[in-house]
Amino acid sequence: MTETQPAKPRRSMAAFDLPAWGLAAATLAGFAGRWHWLLDLASHFRWYLLLTTLVWFAVTTRRRSRLATACLVIAVGANVWAILPYWLPATGTIATGDRLTIVSLNVLIHNSDKARGMAYLRQRDADVVVLLEVDDAWADAIADLEPLYPYRVVEPRRDPFGIAVLSKLPLNAPRVETLADGSPVVITGLPLGKAGCLLVAAHPLAPISADWSARRDAQLAAMGELAGDERRPVIVAGDLNTTPWGFGFRQLVAPRGLRDSARGRGVQSTWHARHWAPRIPIDHIVVSPEISVGSRTVGPDVGSDHLPIEATLVVP
């Protein structure tokens, strides 16, 4: 009997060690998103992985092995490293140039409370509005905003990938393209800054399967190449169906060095608007380095499953 007594403490310790190993594995899996779409899904929940790891670290004091402690330290360090840029103060000064206020909102194709969304857009009175999941009913609703936004591209669809750009500013050579076998993307020039700037509005496919994940990443990579080839300042806005830590997001920002407008302003989660958890940041406004970000916030609940994002930009 004496020889078998240590087994109980070992079994008890293993019960506390297994979650630590799992948290470390999930954290590291998020960095391997290029290899498999399921691994990439783990990257989207870094904020929750960090909080869970810190809680488990506190709960299991004196009850975990050294290996489990090392796993928890790795999980905390990796998640902090990924998230920290969003909490560090934004650097740089606001450039002089043309000021632009912009709103991006996934209106939700099945949202029957359209008056609520329309009231928000009128009240916000942004210079440019990007709307996602626009069907014929939403196209009819936003037609009432034409006096406020005389320049527009509206591409309604029966599926959740209809898109619209409404603008107080003239649109220069606007077009709708399908990049890399993805969903429609609106590409248009705006008369801002010395040489104008380029706006790319998009709603890539959701990562609900290997095929859709691959097509989303291909579209984000194609948008990144488009930005990299462009000499004008670039703004990319929309529901990108990825968080800033996903593989597809890195594909988007790398070629031009695009910057997430939320950096220095915290993790500004937008989906799911109806639940406090999980709520992750998949709606974005990213800009090329020469564009200054004056403000960037999450808007109120407007009846969609997404919260709107609002930004004030300065194009030099």
What does it look like?
The chain is an alpha+beta fold and 316 residues long. The chain folds into two domains: 2-86; 98-315, Deoxyribonuclease I, Chain A, CATH 3.60.10.10. It is 34% helix and 22% strand. The chain has eight helices and twelve strands. The protein has helices at 7-29, 37-43, 46-59, 66-83, 114-124, 136-142, 210-229, 247-253; strands spanning 98-106, 128-132, 151-155, 163-167, 172-178, 184-190, 197-202, 234-239, 259-260, 283-287, 292-298, 309-315. It has a six-stranded mixed sheet, with no helix packed on it. The protein has a six-stranded mixed sheet with strand order 5-6-7-8-10-9, covered by helices on one side. A hairpin with a 6-residue loop joins strand 6 and strand 7 (197-202). Helix 1 (7-29) packs antiparallel against helix 3. The longest helix has 23 residues, at 7-29. It is globular, with a radius of gyration of 22 Å. It starts with 6 loop residues before the first helix and ends with a strand. The model has no long low-confidence stretch (mean pLDDT 93).
- Global outline: globular
Low-confidence stretches are: none
Question: Largest sheet, order of strands side by side?
Answer: 3-4-2-1-12-11
Q: Which architecture of the largest domain per CATH?
A: 4-Layer Sandwich
Largest sheet: 6 strands, mixed
CATH superfamily of the largest domain: Endonuclease/exonuclease/phosphatase
* Tally of strands: 12
CATH topology of the largest domain: Deoxyribonuclease I, Chain A
Number of domains: 2
Descriptive tags:
single chain, 316 residues, alpha+beta, Deoxyribonuclease I, Chain A, six-stranded mixed beta sheet, 12 strands
